[in-house]
Hints:
This protein has helices at residues 21-30, 50-60, 79-87, 99-102, 110-118, 146-155, 168-178, 196-204, 220-228, 234-248; strands spanning 2-12, 17-19, 33-40, 66-68, 71-72, 94-97, 122-126, 161-164, 184-187, 209-210. By secondary structure, the chain is an alpha/beta fold. The strands form 2 sheets. It has a 6-stranded parallel beta sheet. The protein has a 4-stranded mixed beta sheet with strand order 2-1-3-4.
Amino acid sequence: xxxxxxxYLGPYPFRxxxxxxxxxxxxxxxHAVAVSIASPLDGLFHQDPEAANQRLMRAIKxxxxxxxxxxxxxxxxxxxxxxxxxxRDPQVRAIRIAPAFHGYPAAETxxxxxxxxxxxxxxxxxxxxxxxxxxPSFLDLPATPLPDIIALAAETPNVRWVASAARMAEIQQxxxxxxxxxxxxxxxxxxxxxxxxxxxxxxxxxxxxxxSTCWPFFYAKSAFLKIGEAGxxxxxxxxxxxxxxxxxxxxxxxxx
Length: 256
């Protein structure tokens, strides 16, 4: 079973990119992806992402192969009731938080993350979406530091954390702190370069990596090419392409 740990529906404000449900379903069919975890792309840029989350849930309703990771802004006073409501929906398997996008330090997410864990939801942290060098000149949006998420994971062993969009250099620099953490995973969406999957696996272990395309922001084919060139064993491929994600998002507890 192939699981795509990071896909998006909706428009992106700074490029002509829109994720449509039919397009996501077509990508999944073309690449034999059994399950996708989807978030609302436009919700990253809304101080209140509720409308974007609702559009996402309507778009995936009845699509049993697509699970949701709605966006939560912990600066909103009712974040707890929102997470608890999400936890009652069987099609929601995680929340996605975006500290850099919503203007707060990663440390402020701890209570929301613990609430998500109580609701049996994973916590995905959007470190970045695009290369910071190519942001519009008016947009000051530095990435959330990966070490901040590692520190949170170490302090909250009951929370299942997923760091989304970490770069290779960041992973390698923090590898000694990541490797012993059994409640932290890294998606592969922004890992690139020659033998990138092999190098990431050597740094933190294949069990810490989650396959992801970052569709529609990136071409899905490139994500599969990275896996194809890695020379992984059958067991390693199985873990990277789906086994790890099944554990991180507890997918086997739901019909997929």
